[in-house]
Amino acid sequence: MKHKILFSLLLVTFSSFLITGCDQGQKTAKVSQSVAKKYTQATFIEGIVSNDKGVIKTGIVKVTDENGRLITHVAVDNSHFRVEIPANTVLPILLTFSAESSTEKLVTAVIDDTITKYYINPSTTAIAKAAKAMGGYTRTNMVRAAEDTVHAPDANKTTTGWRGDPTTQYGGWH
DSSP letters along 38-63, please? Predict the structure, then answer.
């Protein structure tokens, strides 16, 4: 009888160590997945600003972190912008366009340090807003937001009728 009690006690103790060990491993895996991406060296980002009426000739593109802190800014020249992102800038960052002649603010979210060309337009603005509402500017949220933002007729979603990648730089049809 004593052996059965001792064996049961030993089994319960051993099981609790296994469960605790498994839980520790899951916590470690979650932490390693949330490692922040950042630019390891200064990098130039460039692109085009447009709205529903066409390209926007002048204005300012501000680069901010997701909390709104200004990193840098650049003037738009004939709808084009080119801005240097400092080394060690943590992603995500936002490229926000504004013009003196308009209250319209256009945004695109940057979540990948390898992509250097971006569009800033109403589609990228809608995608960025939707991703933020989903919980933040993660790759998963950006892809979901891009897919939800693009409105293609069901007839165009076949293999032969598909006319573009709605997630191209999270900016819709290009």
Answer: B-SS-EEEEEEEEETTEE--EEEEEE
pTM: 0.69
Residue 116 tokens, joined: 């250097």
End-to-end CA distance of the chain: 76
Q: If one looks up domain 43-152+164-170 in CATH, what number appears? A: 2.60.40.1120
Cα dist from 38 to 3, 28, 98, 134, 166, whole Å: 58, 21, 25, 22, 25
How far does CA 1 lie from the centroid of its chain?
Answer: 62
* pLDDT, tens digit (0-9, with 9 covering 90-100), for 28-76: 444 334 567 999 999 999 999 999 999 999 999 999 999 999 999 999 9
